[in-house]
Amino acid sequence: MSRFCPNAVRLLCSFLYSIIDLIGDVLRFFRLMVRSHAALGAEILFLPKQLAFYEERQTKPRRLLS
């Protein structure tokens, strides 16, 4: 099949990867929605410390890949 229409195969693979990414994002969203209040409070306490760390070292925060 790839010999006859390589663009269609590439398009299908790209579409499937996009769907898989979308499903992963939806699952992460629901996981975040059901977090405990303690976990949320801990994150709220940690974030200002993390920001101060980056400002102190004058580095740009890197985006985490999950």
Oligomeric nature of the chains: single chain
Give Rg in angstroms: 20 Å
Helix-and-strand structural type: mainly alpha
Ends distance? 34 Å
Shape: elongated
Q: Indicate the proportion of strand residues.
A: under 5%
Question: Low-confidence parts lasting 5 or more residues at pLDDT below 50?
Answer: none
- The total domain count is 1
* H/I helix tally: 2
Describe the protein's topology:
Blueprint: H1 6-33, H2 37-57
What does this entry look like structurally?
It is built from two helices and no strands. The protein has one domain.
Name a few traits of the molecule:
about 70 residues; mainly alpha; 2 helices; about 75% helix
Please give a quick description of this structure.
The chain has 66 residues and is mainly alpha-helical.
